[in-house]
Amino acid sequence: MKNFTKHLTSFLLIITVLLLMQSNSFALVFPINHTLSGANENPPNASTGTGSIAGTFDNVSKVLSFNLTFSGLLGTTTAAHFHAPAGITTNSPVRIGFAGFPTGVSSGVYSNSYVLTAQQEAWLLSDSMYVNVHSNVFPGGEIRHQLLPDAPLPVELASFVSAVNGNEVTLNWTTLKEINNAGFDIERKLSVTSDWTKAGFVEGHGTVTGSNEYSFTETVSSGKYNYRLKQIDVNGNFEYFNLSNEVVVGIPESYSLSQNYPNPFNPSTKINYSIKEEGNVNITLYNIYGKEVAVILNENRTAGFYNLQFNSSGLSSGVYFYKIISGNFTDTKRMTLVK
C-alpha cells in the first residue's frame, strides 16, 4: 500500500507539472522537505541518527538548492550523495556527489545548489532520486530519504503589465484563479545589475476561482528596470512571474521638488526631486526663523528623477522649510517634525 501511494503521488506530480508547463511559461518552484533516517535505507538499519533536507527546485533555471542537517549518527560521515534512479526499496549509483561535505563527524550542516540535467530532473520529479548520508559504520548509507518534491500551488496569471508616468511606475496584474495565495512580493532590479530588491507587498485573496485585479505603484529614479512578482502561498512556497518588458524611466522635462512624505513625520521622511540638466543640487533645511539647520544634499547630479530619505536625528519637533537650488531653479516646501 505504501509503494502504491508513493507511485500515485509521483504520477500526479508529473501530470501537474505537464499541465502547468503547457498553461504558462513562468518558473515553478517546487518545495522539498524530508526527514532522513536509517529506516529508509535499503535494507533498513538500526541507526538512531536523524537528518532533514529542505530546499527548492526551479523548473526553469533547473537549480536544485538545499540545506541538509544531520545529528546522532552511530558512525562518522564519509560522504553524501544524490543517487538515481531508484525507488524506496532499491539502490542506485551516485549521480551527484556533495563537494565539501563534512566528513569524520556525527552531526553537521551542509548547503549547496546544483543545476540538474534533463535526465536528473526527470528522476527528481518521478520519485526516482534519493539523498544518502554514508558513515564508517554504515558504508552503504546510514540515513536516507527519497527527494520527491511537493507540487507547487501556482496562481494562474491572465496579464501582467506596466505603465510609466514621469518617474511613477504602476504595475497591474490579473489572476484567473488563486490557491492558498498569501500575496505578492514586488521585486525590482536595475537592468544592469543582477540583484533583486523588494519594492513592496500586495496581499492576495487566498483561494478563489474567479479573477482578481491587483495594482502597485512606486516612484523611482531615472533608469531601466526589470520587475517580477514573487507569489507566496500560505505555507511559504513561492513562484515567480516576470514582467516581459523592461521599464524605462526617462529624463524629466522640467525641474521639480515634491512635498515630503510622510508629513508630519518622525523620524524620517522621503523627498522626491527632478532635474532636467546635469548640475549641482543643493537642498538645505531651515527653521521657522530662516536659520540654516542642516544641508540635506549638496552634490552634482545628472539629469533625472531622484528620491532621498531625510533623517531628523538631532532635531527637535517643529516646522521646518527645505529649499532646493539647481541651476536657475529654486523651490521651497514646508515640513513638520513631530517627536
Describe this structure in words.
- The protein has 339 residues and is mainly β.
- The chain has 3 domains: 2-146, Immunoglobulin-like; 156-249, Immunoglobulin-like (Sandwich), CATH 2.60.40; 256-337, Macroglobulin (MG2) domain (Immunoglobulin-like), CATH 2.60.40.1930.
- Helices cover 9% and strands 54% of the residues.
- It has helices at residues 2-23, 118-125, and strands at 29-37, 50-58, 63-71, 77-83, 94-97, 108-115, 130-135, 143-146, 156-165, 168-190, 197-208, 212-219, 223-233, 238-242, 247-249, 256-257, 268-275, 279-287, 292-301, 304-311, 318-326, 329-337.
- Strands 9, 10, 11, 12, 13, 14 and 15 form a 7-stranded antiparallel beta sheet that branches.
The structure class reads mainly beta
CATH fold annotation of the largest domain: Immunoglobulin-like
Largest sheet: 7 strands, antiparallel
**Shape summary:** elongated
Q: Which architecture name of the largest domain does CATH use?
A: Sandwich
What is the straight-line distance between the termini?
A: 67 Å
> What portion of the residues fall into strands of 2 or more residues?
over 45%
Mean pLDDT: 91
Treating each run of at least 4 consecutive H or I residues as one helix, how many helices? 2
Q: Give helix and strand order, one letter per element, not per position.
A: HEEEEEEHEEEEEEEEEEEEEEEE
Which CATH class of the largest domain is shown? Mainly Beta
Helical coverage, percent range: under 10%
Poorly predicted runs: 17-25
Number of strands: 22
Gyration radius, in Å: 28 Å
- The figure for the number of domains is 3
